[in-house]
Design brief:
α5 crosses α7. Strands 8-7-6-9-10-11-12 form a 7-stranded parallel beta sheet, with helices on both faces. Strands 2-1-3-4-5 form a 5-stranded parallel beta sheet. It has 318 residues and is of the alpha/beta class. It is globular, with a radius of gyration of 21 Å. It contains 12 helices and 12 strands. The chain starts with a strand and ends in a 10-residue tail after the last helix. The longest helix is centred in the C-terminal third of the chain and has 19 residues. Bound molecules: 2-keto-D-gluconic acid. 2-keto-D-gluconic acid (8YV) binds next to loops.
Length: 318
Amino acid sequence: MKVFATRKLPEEIVKKLEQHVEYKEWHSAEQPMTKEQIVDAVKDVDGIISVLSDPLDKEVLESAPNVKVISQLAVGFNNIDVEEATKRSIRVTNTPDVLTNATADLTFALLLAAARKLSAASKEVREGEWKSWSLLQLAGKELSGSTIGILGFGRIGQAVARRAKGFDMDVIYWNRSKKPEAEQAIGATYHELKDVLKQADFLVIMLPFAPELKYLIGAEELALMKEDAIVVNTARGGLVDEAALYEALKNGKLGAAALDVFEQEPVPTDHPLLTLPNVEVAPHIGSSTIATRMEMADLTVRNLLAVLQNKEPETPVN
Ligand code: 8YV
């Protein structure tokens, strides 16, 4: 069996794979593969290990007639045409659960960084701008007693809610379906999307991407929000209209934003959002703790090998 991974994997993971399959991986940690390179690389393979931005669409799947499994090293799989894969009897798997806590932690790290202006604070210290003490020096936004609105109340959304409770925040959420059990267990309340937008001091976006959710948060939605509210997106860039977000932040219609994800990744360094002081950014590292990333890689391999050995994978998508 032949397997191709679109990114470099750690040596111990590669060794494990090599005990079972003929393994190849993309050689560069710097340069992601183009679609043409993916088409070329998967022509004769039985299994693919993929990540978030690999376009595994109809055209790529057509060019890979032997593929039996796409094992995605991520919980999100909006880069894969799952319908087409299913038609072709290709199993798709992902890595839910193992990354829930790490992603919720980074969401909170970014939320706190924006609330307490940590990038500006760090700059002030490093660049000799720290001259004295003043009453409202870098004064930020209090979490205790504030309202956090969470869009998407799945595993990670709920983990964010539990953390918010620890910070004495009121938790409200919107989700496509209500989650009464989680509401009760955590102490959160469901509201319509508009009401969450109006009430939230902090808005956390924690939805999977789907085409119908593109720009879920655009100019109209941002206009409903409090002028000092903070938007945190650690889900997918396409859920937020970045141009509208920029306008709102620049014109004082929104307090700050904290973004781990962008519509185009890596985000171009001349992106207008990067010029604003009230924007905290990270390079899509929500799940990136050593323990979590290694667990994700391990689960990805277990899923892949299960399918190739005609067994049921642990976390199937289709
Ligand atoms: C991944 C993520 O690291 O799991 C996801 O959906 O966005 C991240 O945890 C990234 O997508 C690489 O595949």
